[in-house]
Each structure stands twice: as structure tokens, then as C-alpha cells.
Design brief:
47 residues; mainly alpha
């Protein structure tokens, strides 16, 4: 799966979770940033 298709999907899931459970905002943002960082690194490392 390409990074271009992963980022909007992760953002959509994070947005829905924030709407449903606002108390989890810090955790959702942290997980989102980690996932985007990992997918970004995987895209630059793989040949």
C-alpha cells in the first residue's frame, strides 16, 4: 500500500475517533504522528 493512500485513511480514522472520544485526543494525535512517521520512513528507505 502506498503512502499516498495510507495517510488519508489514517487521518479519517483519527478524525472519527476524536469525534467519538474527545478525551483520547492526545493519544490519537500521538499514534497518528507515529504512523505517518513510520510510513514516511518506509517510503524513503525501501528501494
Amino acid at each position: 500500500m502506498e503512502i499516498i493512500t495510507v495517510q488519508p485513511l489514517v487521518a479519517l480514522i483519527a478524525g472519527v475517533l476524536i469525534l467519538l472520544m474527545p478525551r483520547l485526543l492526545n493519544y490519537i494525535v500521538a499514534i497518528y504522528l507515529i504512523v505517518i512517521g513510520i510510513t514516511g520512513l518506509m517510503g524513503t528507505i525501501s528501494p
